[in-house]
Design brief:
By secondary structure, this protein is α+β, with helices and mostly antiparallel strands. The protein has four domains: 122 residues, Acyl-CoA dehydrogenase/oxidase, N-terminal domain (Butyryl-Coa Dehydrogenase, subunit A, domain 1, Orthogonal Bundle); 109 residues, Butyryl-CoA Dehydrogenase, subunit A, domain 2 (Beta Barrel); 136 residues, Up-down Bundle (Butyryl-CoA Dehydrogenase, subunit A, domain 3), CATH 1.20.140; 32 residues, no CATH class. It contains 14 helices and ten strands. The strands form three sheets. A four-stranded mixed beta sheet has the order 1-4-5-8. A hairpin with a 2-residue loop joins β9 and β10. The relative contact order is 0.10. The C terminus is likely disordered.
């Protein structure tokens, strides 16, 4: 396959290892129990991941990781994504939270928090979104006020995966309301304590079984040594954490789309109508062809984005493109798969209806498609036009146009000058 050629021998071996884990170590009943919300967090799944050394793939061996590249991370996440978004999310939380600790944390924080989450003895989660915030990261109103050897936290966070199961949370707080927006926010490791309350657990359309809830912090005391990075440096931590958040969302969506498409392909080869297999009808096989093309394109973009991060190259645009394209492609592919199956695809005989409910979240979480568009356009203009602080003159200069005479030019004149 094409994507095999894009991977190293080590990455292909990891893919096969995770694929065996998905096949042999994850019981189908776990997926059904989670979807029926009979369990609120897949502790058994986390324990098995740790047993097989599949948590913290990118992190140093000193803390229990494998020191693998980002491409290995997305390869593994695609395989887990075949199981659905819920387990994919549970799988990547070590990568997301661990990225902050590994990049910005102290040696003590790595010993107390990074190592335990890689070995599976602690469950980490991220607390980012606020009831009135959404994608407005710098508008966070959860406050952290210094008090002696601690900070006192008050506020709320919602859509927190594993709200009841987590041992600690990575919490973004406003530590200086008067500072410029990018210097207002700080990141803290907040351990479960009497000041941390789960006030509500949401019922979700899909991605069930991970206990997504709303947290309330009421005079919660957090030791100053639990500050991650510098005070007011939360924007830097957030920017770094968005790499695993968005890359793994993209890779997990590729896995979900692949799982749904495989069902449709196999079904089309068995289902007979009008005297022949339905894959013989162009109306069906062209849908399969279109879905496969989108799947390969999404995977290629995800792998490409991961490789730019591995090489330390500018990656914000590609990561945003990968997240946007892969999640939207998965939504399209799953809908196509359901169309191929027809009425039976709308029932729970096949897991397509669960894939559909799961993958819809991909277009929303870790930054909506519209937020990705905002990032993509910003990075595109920056790449082609340079300093955006004086974008109008830069644009005119790039086209060879005198800004003082710009109104004298028609669109055709502008194109000729370009």
């Amino acid at each position: 396959m094409l994507y095999d050629a894009l991977l190293t021998e080590e990455e292909n071996a990891l893919r096969d290892e995770v694929r065996r884990f998905v096949r042999d170590d994850v019981p189908a009943d776990l997926l059904r129990s989670m979807d029926r919300e009979e369990i609120t967090f897949p502790h058994e799944f986390i324990a098995k991941l740790a047993k097989h050394g599949l948590r913290g793939l990118r992190f140093p061996k000193k803390w229990g990781g494998r020191e693998l590249p980002w491409t290995a991370e997305v390869v593994a996440e695609e395989e887990i994504g075949v199981l659905g978004m819920a387990l994919a999310c549970a799988f990547v939380m070590t990568s997301i939270v661990g990225e902050a600790i590994n990049t910005f944390g102290t040696e003590d924080q790595k010993e107390r928090f990074l190592k335990p989450i890689i070995t599976g003895t602690k469950i980490p989660e991220e607390a980012l979104t606020e009831p009135r915030g959404g994608s407005d990261f710098f508008g966070a109103t959860t406050r952290a006020v210094p008090d002696g050897d601690a900070f006192v936290l008050n506020g709320q966070k919602r859509f927190v995966v594993g709200a009841e199961a987590a041992d600690f949370f990575m919490v973004y707080c406003n530590t200086d309301p008067k500072a410029p927006p990018h210097e207002r926010i700080s990141m803290f490791i907040v351990e479960k304590s009497p000041g941390v309350e789960v006030e509500h657990v949401y019922g979700l359309l899909g991605c069930r079984g991970t206990g997504v809830g709303r947290l309330v912090f009421r005079n919660c005391r957090v030791p100053k040594e639990n500050l991650v990075g510098r005070l007011g440096g939360g924007a830097l931590v957030f920017d770094r954490m968005m790499i695993p958040e968005r890359l793994t969302s993209a890779a997990g969506s590729v896995g979900g789309g692949r799982g749904a498409l495989e069902i449709a392909i196999r079904y089309s080869d068995r289902r007979v109508a009008f005297g022949k297999k339905i894959r013989k009808f162009q109306a069906v096989n062209f849908m399969i062809a279109d879905a496969m093309t989108k799947l390969d394109a999404a995977r290629g973009l995800v792998y490409g984005a991961a490789k730019t991060v591995d090489k330390g190259m500018p990656h914000r645009r590609l990561v945003s493109e990968a997240k946007k394209f892969a999640t939207e492609a998965a939504w399209s592919i799953v809908n196509t798969a359901m169309q191929v199956l027809g009425g039976i695809g709308y029932t729970n005989v096949y897991p397509l209806e669960r894939y559909l409910r799961d993958c819809r979240l991909g277009l929303i979480w870790t930054g909506t498609s519209q937020i990705m568009d905002a990032l993509i356009q910003h990075e595109t203009f920056a790449e082609f036009l340079g300093n955006l602080s004086d974008r109008r003159n830069v644009e005119m200069d790039a086209m060879g146009i005198d800004a003082q005479k710009e109104k004298c030019y028609t669109d055709e004149d502008m194109w000729r000058n370009f």
